[in-house]
Amino acid sequence: MEPRAEFRRRTRLAPEARRKQLMECALEVFSKRGIGRAGHAEIAELAQVSVATVFNYFNTREDLVNAVLTEVELYFRGIASAAFGQSKDPLEAIHDYIALVVEAAYVKPDYTHIWLEWSSSVREEIWPRYLKLLSHNTDLMKKVITPGFDNHDFDCRLSVDEFCRALSGCGYMIIQMINQPGHASKEKVVEFVYSYITAILHPKDQ
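Request: output the structure for the sequence above.
Response:
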């Protein structure tokens, strides 16, 4: 497997720097190969280190998968917290969330691809953990969006729980849009997805 970015020389690194390098490689391998197929050998090849070195940092495949999913989980928890972690207008928070997910799809494609694969791995042992992430993020969304439902600011046929589930699923649409030939600009993707989501919400003042 060829490295996506710069050539990775075989050099001595401090343990933390080596772990960071191996995690970057692991994210790339998991993104390309899939959660179920990625392993220590591909990461070692990409990082240009021995397989034993990768095992020194991730002793088992379970440890490796857990470390990668933890990295992805923290990243997308951070996105939800940035958009919905403080009191603000619901529409502003929704726009912020969509913009952050679109930005992630451009600047952190490995994280985004793993997140979306994880969200559909319903037959895997990792599924319950994904549901906890989904619940955490939709709970943050509901804290900001529920007052709009309670105040009848929206003429939405969905419950607030159903709407937040719909919002959390916008990543699929985003990935499809930015990976098409001649894809739209980042701004156009945000604008389209926001219009689509708010059409479901149906704000009364719009």
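Residues 15-59 form a domain with the Arc Repressor Mutant, subunit A fold (CATH 1.10.10.60).
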